[in-house]
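Researcher: Going back to the complex we discussed earlier. I've cleaned up the inputs and rechecked each line, so this should be the final set. Can you rerun the prediction on the complete assembly and write out the structure?
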Amino acid sequence: MRSESDRTLCERAAEVMPGGVYGHLSVARLSSSHPQFFARAKGAHLWDMEGRRYLDFMCAFGPNLLGYGHQAVDAAYVEQLALGDVMTGPSPVAVELAETFVNMVDGVDWVLFCKNGNDATTAALMTARKHTGRATIVRAKGAYHGSAPWCALGEAGVGPHDQADQIFHRYNDVEDLERAVKQAGKDLAAIFVSPIKHDIIVDQELPDPAYARRARELCDETGALLVVDNVRAGFRLTRGCSWTAMGVTPDLSSWGKALANGHALSALTGSNACKSAASKIFVTGSFWFAAAPMAASLVTLKIIRETDYLEHTIRLGETLRTELHSLAQNHGFGLKQTGPAQIPLITFEDDADLTLTRDWTGALARRGIYFHPYHNMFLCAAMTEADIAHTLEQADAAFAEVHS
Amino acid sequence: MRSESDRTLCERAAEVMPGGVYGHLSVARLSSSHPQFFARAKGAHLWDMEGRRYLDFMCAFGPNLLGYGHQAVDAAYVEQLALGDVMTGPSPVAVELAETFVNMVDGVDWVLFCKNGNDATTAALMTARKHTGRATIVRAKGAYHGSAPWCALGEAGVGPHDQADQIFHRYNDVEDLERAVKQAGKDLAAIFVSPIKHDIIVDQELPDPAYARRARELCDETGALLVVDNVRAGFRLTRGCSWTAMGVTPDLSSWGKALANGHALSALTGSNACKSAASKIFVTGSFWFAAAPMAASLVTLKIIRETDYLEHTIRLGETLRTELHSLAQNHGFGLKQTGPAQIPLITFEDDADLTLTRDWTGALARRGIYFHPYHNMFLCAAMTEADIAHTLEQADAAFAEVHS
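Model: Rerun complete. Updated structure for the full complex:
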């Protein structure tokens, strides 16, 4: 059970916040053993209000790439904060960071910094519409590109015209993509895609290279822009743009979450072909040129370039996946482990309502391992082989617990 | 002239960012003596790339309320950062801050934290639509509520349906407001207003109490929600909600900019009547529950409650206004000084294309005073009487310079 101090905080939160804790951090649909509040975070771990420690496989839903409270990243933040953060003009660190990004990621000629991932996806929408002079976008049904009315997954508060000029298709389905593009006709401004299918609740899917390439071709044929939304998966699949390995270079890419290892920063990047359009839209925010998160991002990008953080998290993820598979089998369970090993979604077979998955992740939470039952998880570079071994021990015990 | 180091940075920026520095921080339409980049900020001052100091009357376009690099505010930020900032759940500081806000501001029963001011105005739109089950909003032509497509002032990148279900009226014009509300008919979800008219380029206007009260009445009569967008003026007109002094309590208010004295935090607040609707919309962002800006905001709100920061900035603003008026007259100029003294817009009479205003603010920039020719300015609590006296001396010299 959630601790009394956590429950008290939840009650206080419900008094002064709509629905208590809102958005993706709400544990309303998780087990009652998942704490809602955390007092502290460091490296790969969280501490709840009772001082209980959790090995955190959510990584703040993505921002924690290198470890919470990363010394070098946060030192750069604090140093820049003392110098100047939000000012009446940008700091030179904005230029330095944009140059670093452009030099680092193939196909990126320019960077537009913002705060939320959704700011970047909205700027992509506006850039594509300005560039083409057209309105319609084709995107995948169920894909998350933010919670603004134009891309909200739910209907609450969304107006009757907020998702006009949008045509949906099935991710990884070339024929359905072609059908949607045909339907858009001469009004196609952009195709929006996630680099992998990481929709909530359903199994993840890696992109079919034929789908990725066809999306690129269709944009080339129609003059529309290809937008790859890297907000969640950026720098977790590769050090570059997520589809580059398949030979596909998008016109626009959105980034966020891990870009400054937890500090608030997002970005839209693009090619020279649509730079003029991006310069003509007016997008801005009070804190978009804040220098401290940019200083933190400079260090984050350096670590991304110079360390094996990626290979390390992939290796740990693969060990976790392989061993979990065996453990589950030993207990007579089948697991569905989908998506990349370092961005895993783990559910039980024959568990459509996720009851078993929820119970198992609840048992894990009681054992100090924070797994999520229906949102993809993340490994971070601060995790160790010992952490994975410990996770597997606890998973074994949790299998036994839910089996009985 | 802008310094060589500033111009070099502008050229580098133009290579790697669309249009160079974009959004409201661009100095493209300011005098060539306004630096684009700043190396440092402290208290009421900025330093450019050559180490030249400016007394800053823009306050980062609003976030700087108490002074740049405010010791107590930033210490709270850094302390919370070391403990935990963006995590897999909120920190208890989120609850503490929401409770503080609710206890501090009359008519506020709940708080929904976000990052950009525009996040809060968008959440207001969605809450109003969910609460009423209607779509249409009435808002003032030319008012700025953010740069998202639904509220963008320009047309670039805005789709043909992004501003559907919106009816515009003239700020402070009761008859025109009534006409717009009548036009919305049974579909009216909300009336959006700024607490003062602080549209770009044109003279500012204080709200006519009859207009404010009629907006409230029209919402009461129709069941629509009254949204006061405090993002820019919040805590600069009063310690509470900006229209409370006129006896008008909004259903929803958006806040941002100064809420954490420059740290990235915004909020939508509301009354209990629309709390249920706010709990049903799904709005979220990767960094919305970041604890460090909330810790900074707690200290900011305490200073707002316990010091005379507001009376101090009003007093300084009134001195500046009165003395500038006399100085201008001595030089044969007439000034238009509009809006509250602490949020002034200062232009010259008979200067429709702002040439004279631009030249005068350029002369001021060369003298180390950062004034803006067409966007409202801000005073901050770190300014002193000596700063104002110094500003007036430089203004006198700048009048003489542009006169010849």
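Model: Worth noting: The CA atoms of residues 44 and 203 of chain A lie 25 Å apart.
Researcher: Good, that matches what I expected from the previous run.
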